Amino acid sequence: MQDLTIAFIGGGNMAEALIAGLRRAGHAGEKIIVSDPQQQRRKFLAEQYLVRTVEDNSVAAAAADLLVLAMKPQQMKDALAGLSEHLKADASVISIAAGVSSAAMQEWLGSGANIVRVMPNTPALVGAGMSVLFSDAGELHKARAEYLLKACGEAVRVEKEAQMHAVTALSGSGPAYFFLLAEVMQATGEKLGLPAELAAKLAAQTALGAGKMLVESDRTSEQLRHQVTSPGGTTQAALDMMYEMGLPAAVRQGVVAASKRSEELAG
Ligand SMILES: NC(=O)c1ccc[n+]([C@@H]2O[C@H](COP(=O)([O-])OP(=O)(O)OC[C@H]3O[C@@H](n4cnc5c(N)ncnc54)[C@H](OP(=O)(O)O)[C@@H]3O)[C@@H](O)[C@H]2O)c1
After folding, report:
1. What is the mean pLDDT of residues 211-234?
2. What is the pLDDT of residue 242?
3. 82 touches ligand 1 (CB under 6 Å)
4. What is the pTM of this model?
5. What domains sit in the chain, N to C, each tagged with a CATH number?
6. Ligand 1 proximity of 79 Cβ (cutoff 6 Å)
7. Res. 232 pLDDT band, cuts 50 70 90
8. Rounded Cα–Cα distance for residues 195 and 125 (Å)
9. 176: Cβ below 6 Å to ligand 1?
10. Ligand 1 atom at shortest distance from the alpha carbon of 35
């Protein structure tokens, strides 16, 4: 896989996260090519990651074994027009654009493109992403996508494209749910008398620790919660109040709302 030429159309935040991961994993800079309209952005990426940069998308597409579509969803249709004639026949096309279906990309690129649709999330920026991929294309293309995505976190597959709405609601939008919790914990810590900086650190490090336990422990989230909840103790007092105030129902309905919104946006 390290021999693959990986081209990015769009050199924004998510592309940078993937490029940083690839470089950390030892993928050579000269095997990475980025196309972006902004000269400043190209200069930054070339200097920071020693990658090749170009202004013309078709130059990047022509070089690609693996083409990563990393522009905003609304920029996709225009960017893909005329691109397929430059693609190698066995190139893999990986889209990280939220909400753009495989069928839409197939239509814009022309049939025969080997498309893998991915829902990444922002923790990819710190190497702890959760990416979910769907594809009707062959194993080779899914394996290439996994190689790319595992450079900045975890990657798993779903078998049905319709599951991407639930995926978006869980891991795509999910970081914001944890940020909200941290925000409220921090603000309340301040109200209870802690300096802002200390409250922020306590909330952030607690989130990191709880996340690591969730990922690394053999126990379920429910078991881990029971483990830290002594009967009649402080945690019990907090959780009783959170249940009484409807926190689980609010989270449930929030996740369902995100999934419905994803369906609406897909049209
Ligand atoms: N960031 C997230 O949290 C997140 C999470 C999951 C999925 N995603 C998906 O990741 C994709 C990229 O998001 P992002 O946050 O990285 O966006 P971004 O920072 O705006 O990056 C997009 C880049 O593509 C460039 N671009 C626009 N049109 C182009 C074209 N025709 N050809 C080549 N490059 C073009 C943009 O240049 P201009 O600035 O000049 O337009 C910009 O540099 C989106 O589709 C988004 O849905 C993002």
Report:
1. 95
2. 97
3. no
4. 0.89
5. 6-159 (3.40.50.720), 172-266 (1.10.3730.10)
6. yes
7. very high
8. 28
9. no
10. 33
**Best residue among 71, 93, 121 to mutate for probing ligand 1, ranked by most atoms within 8 Å of CB:** 71
What residue owns the CA closest to ligand 1's atom 19? 12
Cα 33 from Cα 5, distance rounded (Å):
8
Contact call for residues 138 and 6 (beta carbons, < 8 A):
no
Is residue 118 in contact with ligand 1, taking CB distance under 6 Å? no
In the chain, alpha helices (H): 13-24, 39-49, 57-63, 73-80, 102-109, 139-149, 164-167, 174-191, 196-216, 221-227, 234-244, 247-266
Task: Say whether pLDDT at 2 is over 90.
Answer: no
In tens, the pLDDT along 29-45 reads: 999 999 999 999 999 99
Residue 47: both structure tokens together: 């200097």
The answer to whether 122 and 179 have CB atoms below 8 angstroms apart is no
